[in-house]
Design brief:
Elements: H1 7-21, H2 30-38
Length: 41
């Protein structure tokens, strides 16, 4: 029995799901953290 999955639609679904799971919260303090890590160099 051949599978009738729409692979293009399925792939788009996975991409959207990944976008939701990938948090960009780390970017909020990025500059401060870089400055702190480079202090004294």
């Amino acid at each position: 029995m051949p599978e009738k999955r729409n692979w293009k639609e399925y792939n788009e679904h996975l991409i959207r799901r990944g976008e939701i799971l990938f948090s960009l919260d780390f970017l909020e303090k990025w500059d401060e953290e870089i400055e702190e890590m480079n202090r004294g160099k």
